C-alpha cells in the first residue's frame, strides 16, 4: 500500500518536472542567458576600434564607466524620471482607485475607460503625446494660450527641462491606470464594517483614510511601487519615440543610452557593462522593496 | 469573520441640507474619464481632419470637413496591412505557445508539490521585473548566431518567454482555486496526470486561459524594443515600430495625419479588447501581481 503510494508520488514528481521543463528552459534562454552573457561580455572591449573582435580588458569597461559623464547623467535623469513619475502615479492612482471604488451608475464603464491607457502600445502613445506637445500645432499650447496662461507658444520637446517634464507627463498618463487597478483590488478587500465602526467612534474621513485605508492597502501600494520602479527605471519605448533622448541628451535615460551604445556606436563590450550595472541597481532596490513588502504583509496579517 | 452587530444606521453623509457627495463624485468620475480618453480622442480627431485643419492655428476642435485620406495614404504608400498582419500573427502565435507551455508548468507548481517550488516561483516573480533593455543585447547575439533576423521566430520566441511569468502566476492561482475532487475522481478512474490535465482539467480552465491569453496578446502586440532591433526589413515590421518610423522617413514635412491614423489603427484592437474584457483584464492583472 505505502509502496504503491510512493511510486504514484514518484511518478507525479517526474510528470511535474516534465511539465515544468519546457517553460523553465525558455525562461533560461530569454532571461538568464542574456544577463549572464552580459556579465561575461562586459569583460571585453568589442567595438569598431577592435574591428568588433572581443579583446579582454578585465574591469576596463567599469573603470571607463566611472569617468563617463554621459552615463552618470543618464543615471541621474532616470532617477529623477522614476522618482517624480512613480510618486505622482501613486497619488493619482490612489485617487482614481478611491473614486472607482465608490458605487455609482456606470461604474463598469468608468473602470473600462480608466484602464484603457495601460492597455495601449507605449510607442503609439508616445506618438500621441509628441503630437500633443508639438511646438507648432500642439493642442497643449493651444489650450494654455486660450486660457491665457501662455502668451507665446512653447516648444515643449525642444527645451531640455520641459522635454523631460513632458515625457514624465506622458508616462504618468500611460501608467497611472496600472497603479489604480492594483490599488482598487486592495480597496475592494477592505470590509465596509471597519469604516462604519470607525465613523461611529467619531473619526473624520481623512482619519479613516490614514488609519484604515492606507495600512490595509499597504501591500498593494508596495507591489505597485515595486513594479512601477522597475518599469520606470528601464523605460525605453516612450522616451525613444517621443524625444530619442534629446534635446541635448536632456531626456536620455539609461535604457536609451544603452541602446545607442550598442546599436549606434556598436560598442558591445561597454554596452554589456552598462547592462550589468543597471541590472545590479535594479536587483538591489528590488531586494530592499521585497524585504519591506514581507514586513508589511506580516503586519497586516497580524491584525 | 468580524462579529457584525446589527446597528440601525441611516446613511446620512451630510449634516447640512444639500448632499454634495454625488455631485463631487460625478465631477471626479468625469475628470477621470476625460483624463483617460482625451489623448486618444485627440489623435482620432487629428486622423480624420484635413491637412489644412491639422496645421491651422488656433487649433480646430470641431472640423467642418472630415477625410479618410490619411488612412488611405497609409495603405497606399506603405505595406500597412502587412504591419497589421505581422503584429497579429506574432502576437497570436506567441500567446498560444505561452499558454501551451505556461499552463502545464503552472499546474505542476500548483498541485504536484515539487521540491524547490518556492525558489522557482520566486525566480519567476523576479523575472517579471526585468526591463527588456537588459535582454536585448544577449538576444541580439542569439538572433545573429541562429540567423533569425527578419524572421518571425525572432519575435515569437522572446514574446512567448516574456509572457510566461504572468501566465504561470495567473494560471497557478486559478489551479489552486479548482476543487481537488475532480482530479481525485479522475485518478480513481485510472487517468494518468497528462490525460487528466488534457481531458478533465483543461475544459474547466478555459475562462482562465482566456484571461491570461488576453494579457499575453496585449503585451506581445505592444512590444517595441525587440521588434525594433530584430526586424529591419520593411515587410517584417510590426505596427508600433512601423508607426514610430513614419515621421523619420521624411525630412521636411512631418506627416501628422498618417501618424495619427497609424496610432488609431494600432490601438483599435486593444481598445476593443478592453471594451469587451475589462473584468477579465483586471482580474488577471491583479491575480498576476498580487497573489504571486
From TrEMBL, chain A:
Transmembrane segment boundaries: 75-100, 112-132, 268-293
Gene3D superfamilies with a match to the protein in the record: MetI-like (1.10.3720.10)
Residue ranges occupied by any ABC transmembrane type-1 domain in the UniProt entry: 75-289
A GO cellular component annotation in the UniProt record: plasma membrane
PROSITE patterns with a match to the protein in the record: ABC_TM1 (PS50928)
Keywords annotated in UniProt: Cell membrane, Membrane, Transmembrane, Transmembrane helix, Transport
Cytoplasm found in the keyword field: no
Main location: membrane
GO BP terms: transmembrane transport
Topology class, membrane: Multi-pass membrane protein
Subcellular localization: Cell membrane
Entry-linked InterPro entries: MetI-like, MetI-like_sf
Family as reported in the entry's similarity comment: Belongs to the binding-protein-dependent transport system permease family.
Protein name: ABC transporter permease subunit
Lineage, opening ranks: Bacteria, Bacillati, Cyanobacteriota, Cyanophyceae, Synechococcales
UniProtKB/TrEMBL annotation, chain B:
Organism classification: Bacteria, Bacillati, Cyanobacteriota, Cyanophyceae, Synechococcales
PROSITE patterns: ABC_TM1
Its membrane topology: Multi-pass membrane protein
The organism of origin for this protein: Petrachloros mirabilis ULC683
Gene3D superfamilies in alphabetical order: MetI-like (1.10.3720.10)
Family listed: Belongs to the binding-protein-dependent transport system permease family.
GO cellular component: plasma membrane
Listed PANTHER family: INNER MEMBRANE ABC TRANSPORTER PERMEASE PROTEIN YCJP, MALTOSE TRANSPORT SYSTEM PERMEASE-RELATED
Pfam families: BPD_transp_1
Protein's recorded name: ABC transporter permease subunit
Annotated ABC transmembrane type-1 domain residues: 84-277
InterPro entries: BP-dep_ABC_trans_perm, MetI-like, MetI-like_sf
Compartments where found: Cell membrane
Chain ranges passing through the membrane: 23-45, 83-107, 119-140, 152-175, 196-221, 259-277
Cell membrane found in the keyword field: yes
GO biological process: transmembrane transport
